[in-house]
Write a structure and sequence with these properties.
Chain A: It comes from Cyprinus carpio carpio. The complex is a heterodimer of chains A (370) and B (590). Helix content of chain A is 31%, strand content 13%. Chain A contains 9 helices and 10 strands. Chain B is elongated, with a radius of gyration of 33 Å. Classes of the chains: A alpha/beta (370), B alpha+beta (590).
């Protein structure tokens, strides 16, 4: 009996001791998970490659992903949005400055605060690859550059018309899956991403990620090779199909996600099964190092920043210089300034005589005589 | 409560500074900082106004002007402007980096119908237009121009980077500076238009972010894109120029004007009823003035009141201004006074039509169209109307035609009243294929009450197949012609430059009382160039490969194939039987 009592008390004490230990382990695991993704900033490159009014749904696709990504925290300065044609202010749009995703005009994905970086004829294969690899002309403004570093998680979304191994840009050129894979390899070698999520919504979309060979890439496509991705629903007032099925259900899924959500990639793979999408969405995770079940949606779609709280104090030195007197201040100027005559007729006619001489030297051939 | 504007201005500064901040900060190693004294901070001021002008066709014209005046000098050597308050930092840095003396950029959707609507306060051509005067210290104007267009394309989210030497011209007599200046050497002027450029919310968003109050307070709360783009005409522009600081004009200040002109159509936005209100036009009403503005006013043109329409709520403030050669009366609503908003604390103006009236014909009007048939030749006709009954005046016509329409200048004719009218000044710069467009400037004297027609024939070029746009069957655009004129005024114009003038009447500097300066833009042209069938390379490859495979392949086979008799293989049973037969010496089975 005594021995039995001793055993139970020992077991009980052991249990009591191990509970806080198990709890701290759990906390550590949670904290470890929090820091496990290894990225410090998020970028998104969203591309719509189709032109013409009847491809309204591709612009609506891209804008709905843009809207979700902005809502979850990625700022405009970290989003490169490329739209090959203008649907919102198109003359055929019965409701200008709007792009709807749901019929009966329920949701305007264009919104009031949109910044398109590449639009119209600028959306070409060359510009897309230059944005990805960073080889842009020196005068390109910041908003048109993908300034990612080796701790950036990048989301790349492409939509348009595609086929087995290619994606069509603006009905005049194509990008092949090999080119895309090489571009990602360039990005990896230049350390331009930490992890990359590639989503494509076109016909035979899975063919575009078949050739990837760089590490840390995860890819999703709306249909397998040999299958077509279908559009969702037309709106009779606007007259065209509003969204593609895969992106429609993706948008529905993303509307449930909020910045603190714990939804992971496995939930994203389940979006739009064949019963809803008619085509079979595919995904590829073999190049990705982490387990997709531990990758949060907000790692790519949101901009969740890791914050380290420090208790050290930092001294900020103020660099106040004395007020610099302006050289040549106003009261020294004596000459009064005047406005220029907008149409000085006499001066222009007089200019003709001088112009005539210099003009005949400039152009080869006989000067114009009137 | 805590100052809401202070917090917002931090936010706005961050947004405004993002585009060019890092590039310039990296270049500038030493940063001089000035202690901000109260005197320095008060030297910039902001004014906003809205002018509503009912048009005789039942449409309504609203013109917003936001002006920031800053007593500083961006172009002074050794002095870097680093503290910005009301003036947007992104534009200020652009001015100092590229030594810009004057910058005018406009984005327009729609065409201004002069005959139906009269003259606009600030004219603009369809598409995007950019003209810049550089400072005379700049050594490489073309390089600065190229970089400036790229930076502006990032700031305004427009594809202004398509502006290059093939569509830039240097006008020699048009586009004189609208700001202060003595010398006007046209080597420092660059002008370009992109007629294809669209305007949409993505251009309005950064434009609104340049305003000191953003779109949160003051008149800018009315700028909702869903209503603004559902209109017949929408134009937003930014004009930066140096102006006189005071009447003596001893020192200069920099002025930034952001203007937005919109014409709402009676049938699409007005639902057919000749009754307009602020809520019907903008789906918003005014609740307060911008706290950072020194003046915030709404003017309603009531010159045709009371016979034509009635205005409510009534206001005791009236103002008269001479604008566009005419004396107009305006009802003024001063938003900085609390009683303007009434008991409901919101101002919703209501205009109700009572009758129809006759519109005064505009004195100057221009049209342009392409004549001819086929895809080889054509003729450009520009028609300019002078509707003044007895006064003749000169106009300066500037045409910039892309190189792929090859103009034959020997066919240029200018006729007025079916008689030849010789221009007193012509400047023509011929195009160079793929390098430079045509530039034609002429000073033409228009006889009174007449129509002047300028015609020139052209031939269409065949482009290289990589030079076609992805949708070449849409056609190619030719930018609007610009007609600049000093039109005789019916009333004496005000030559005094005072600070109290309303903004809409003080845009163009007036030199003499008897005439006012006006700029009229014609329609842009859409021409079809001979377009190849782009599916032909694919067709040719298929056809050629088929012909080669069938023709050459058969021929090769005929020459190199030899025929042999082939023994068919027998089934197993027959083979065993044949073996036995061979042993026996009997003929074999087949």
């Amino acid at each position: 009996m005594d021995y039995y009592n001793l055993l139970t008390t020992c077991a009980f004490i052991h249990l009591l001791v191990s509970i806080p230990y198990a709890y701290s382990n759990y906390v550590e695991n949670k904290a470890g998970q929090f820091f496990s993704s290894g990225h410090t900033n998020n970028w998104a490159v969203l591309v719509c490659t189709s032109r013409f009014w009847f491809n309204y749904r591709h612009v609506a696709n891209t804008l709905s992903v843009y809207r979700s990504v902005k809502r979850l925290g990625i700022p405009d300065s970290h989003i490169v949005l490329m739209l090959a044609d203008d649907m919102a202010c198109n003359y055929r749009n019965p409701k200008p400055a709007t792009v709807f995703s749901h019929k009966n005009m329920e949701l305007n994905v264009y919104g009031d605060d949109v910044e398109v970086d590449y639009r119209g004829y600028e959306v070409t294969v060359e510009n897309f690859l230059r944005v990805l690899t960073g080889r842009l002309p020196p005068s390109t403004p910041r908003s048109k550059r993908l300034l990612s570093d080796d701790r950036s998680n990048i989301l790349i979304y492409l939509t348009g018309h595609g086929g087995n191994g290619f994606l069509k840009f603006q009905d005049s050129e194509e990008i092949s899956n090999m080119e895309l894979a090489d571009a990602f390899e360039q990005m990896w070698q230049k350390r331009r991403y930490n992890e990359l999520l590639f989503i494509i919504d076109t016909c035979q979309g899975a063919s575009m990620y078949e050739r990837f060979y760089s590490p840390n890439l995860m890819a999703l496509a709306s249909s397998q090779v040999g299958e077509d991705s279908l559009s969702h629903q037309p709106d009779l007032a606007i007259g065209v199909h509003l969204m593609d099925k895969y992106t429609f259900y993706l948008l529905e899924f993303l509307e449930e996600v909020h910045p603190a959500s714990q939804a992971n990639m496995n939930d994203l793979f389940k979006v739009c099964p064949q019963s809803q999408c008619v085509s079979t969405p595919g995904h590829r995770t073999d190049l990705f190092q982490r387990n997709p079940g531990s990758v949060l949606i907000t790692d790519f779609f949101g901009s969740v920043r890791k914050v380290e709280i420090t208790k050290d104090t930092i001294n900020l030195t103020s660099s106040l210089k004395p007020l610099i007197q302006r050289s040549g201040s106003g009261d020294m100027q004596i000459e009064s300034l005047t406005y220029v005559d907008q149409l000085p007729v006499a001066e222009i006619i007089h200019q003709n005589a001088i112009q005539g001489l210099s003009y005949s030297i400039m152009t080869e051939g006989t000067p114009v005589n009137f | 409560d805590s100052d809401p504007v202070g917090f917002d201005s931090l936010d706005l500064n961050e947004r405004r500074g993002r585009s060019t901040d890092a590039e310039l900060d990296r270049r500038d190693g030493t940063r001089t900082s000035e202690a901000l004294t109260p005197a320095a901070a008060a030297r910039d001021e902001f004014q906003e106004e809205l002018v509503i002008r009912p048009l005789h066709s039942g449409d309504i014209y609203a013109s917003f002007q936001f002006r920031t005046l800053w007593d500083t000098d961006f172009l002074q050597e050794g002095q870097k402007v680093s503290h910005y308050r009301l003036f947007p930092k992104s534009l200020g840095q652009v001015l100092s980096k590229f030594s810009v003396r004057e910058l005018h950029i406009s984005f327009t959707q729609g065409f201004w119908r002069t005959m139906q609507w009269g003259q606009p306060f600030i004219p603009s051509p369809p598409g995007a237009e950019l003209w810049v005067w550089f400072h005379d210290t700049v050594s490489d104007v073309d390089g600065n121009w190229k970089e400036l267009t790229n930076v502006l394309s990032g700031i305004f989210c427009a594809s202004l980077n398509f502006i290059d030497l093939t569509n830039t011209v240097q006008p020699s007599a048009s586009f004189k500076p609208l700001g202060l200046g003595n010398a006007t050497d046209h080597r420092f002027l660059r002008y370009a238009t992109l007629p294809r450029e669209i305007v949409c919310t993505e251009n309005l968003t950064p434009w609104k972010k340049l305003l000191p109050c953003g779109s949160k307070a003051g008149l800018a709360v009315l700028l909702k894109s869903e209503k603004l783009f559902h209109s017949s005409f929408h134009s937003q522009a930014v004009h930066i120029r140096p102006v006189c600081q005071d009447e003596q004009c001893t020192s200069k200040a920099w002025e930034l004007r952001q203007t937005l002109n919109v014409v709402f159509d009676l049938y699409t936005a007005g639902q057919g009823k000749k009754e307009w209100s602020l809520f019907k036009m903008f789906s918003r009403t005014l609740t307060e003035a911008c706290p950072l503005a020194t003046s915030s006013k709404v003017y309603v043109d009531i010159t045709d009141n009371p016979e034509l329409f009635e205005l409510s709520p009534a206001t005791p403030l009236l103002s008269q201004a001479v604008v566009l050669g005419d004396r107009r009366t305006y009802s003024v609503y001063d938003l900085s006074r609390a009683e303007t908003f009434g008991q409901l604390r919101s101002l919703n103006l209501l205009l109700r039509w009572k009758g129809d009236g006759e519109m005064l014909r505009p004195l100057l009007h221009a049209e342009r169209y392409v004549a001819g048939f086929g895809l080889q030749t054509g003729e450009i006709h520009t028609v300019i109307y002078n509707n003044h009954p007895y006064r003749a005046f000169p106009v300066l016509l500037m045409d910039s035609v892309p190189w792929y329409l090859q103009l034959y200048i020997h066919t240029l004719t200018v006729t007025s009243k079916s008689r030849d009218n010789k221009p007193s000044y012509i400047h023509y710069q011929p195009a160079k294929d793929r390098h430079r467009p045509h530039l034609l400037e002429m000073l033409i004297q228009l006889p009174p009450h007449s129509m002047t027609e300028v015609t020139v024939q052209f031939e269409r070029a065949l482009l290289k197949w990589t030079e076609y746009t992805p949708d070449p069957n849409h056609g190619f655009y030719v930018g609007s012609s610009v007609v600049s004129a000093l039109v005789p005024s019916m009333v004496a114009m005000n030559t005094n430059f005072t600070q109290d003038q309303p903004l809409f009447s003080s845009f163009v500097p007036v030199k003499e009382e008897s005439s006012y300066f006006v700029r009229v833009y014609t329609e842009p042209l859409l021409v079809n160039l001979p377009t190849p069938d782009f599916s032909m390379p694919y067709n040719v490859i298929c056809l050629t490969c088929t012909v080669v495979a069938v023709g050459y392949g058969s021929f090769y086979n005929l020459l190199t194939r030899t025929f042999q008799v082939d023994e068919p293989s027998l089934p197993l049973a027959k083979r065993l039987a044949n073996l036995i037969r061979r042993i026996r010496g009997v003929p074999l089975l087949t």
